């Protein structure tokens, strides 16, 4: 499997979209996505959790790209995300992207982002090519 390189983010995005299209969102896992992109599961998590990768807007950019693709390619009208309790940085990323907390569970908080109103293009100009 390939080590992380500049093309890996694009391969992960493409792999995720292909798997969502082929198998549906609920049937796609990190392991499947990493395998399709040609990286190991360990590399996937090492990149996303590495200190060197934090604070540079990469999580927000990756989420915006996936949200944009879900809207334009798959016709999604809503996005949901879960954040484990105590994971303030991930909750902050979601809030910056326009997600709002909608439900509390014992171990995580569910966030929601409507993609139809107000227009998601205003929230995600790069993701929507605007």
Keywords:
6 helices, Aminopeptidase, Arc Repressor Mutant, subunit A, acyltransferase, DNA-binding, Homeodomain-like_sf, disordered C terminus, 130 residues, globular, alpha+beta, transferase, 3-stranded antiparallel β-sheet
CATH topology of the largest domain: Aminopeptidase
Global shape = globular
**Strand-residue proportion:** 5-15%
Q: How many individual domains?
A: 2
CATH superfamily of the largest domain: Gcn5-related N-acetyltransferase (GNAT)
Low-confidence residue ranges: 125-130
Multimeric state: single chain
What is the averaged pLDDT score?
A: 76
Helix and strand pattern: HHHHEHEEH
Please give a structural write-up.
With 130 residues, the protein is an alpha+beta fold. It has two domains: 1-53, Homeodomain-like (Arc Repressor Mutant, subunit A); 56-130, Aminopeptidase (3-Layer(aba) Sandwich), CATH 3.40.630. 47% of the residues lie in helices and 15% in strands. The protein has six helices and three strands. It has helices at 8-23, 30-37, 41-49, 58-72, 88-96, 120-123; strands at residues 78-84, 100-104, 108-114. It has a three-stranded antiparallel beta sheet with strand order 1-3-2, covered by helices on one side. A hairpin with a 3-residue loop joins strand 2 (100-104) and strand 3 (108-114). The longest helix has 16 residues, at 8-23. The N and C termini lie far apart (35 Å).
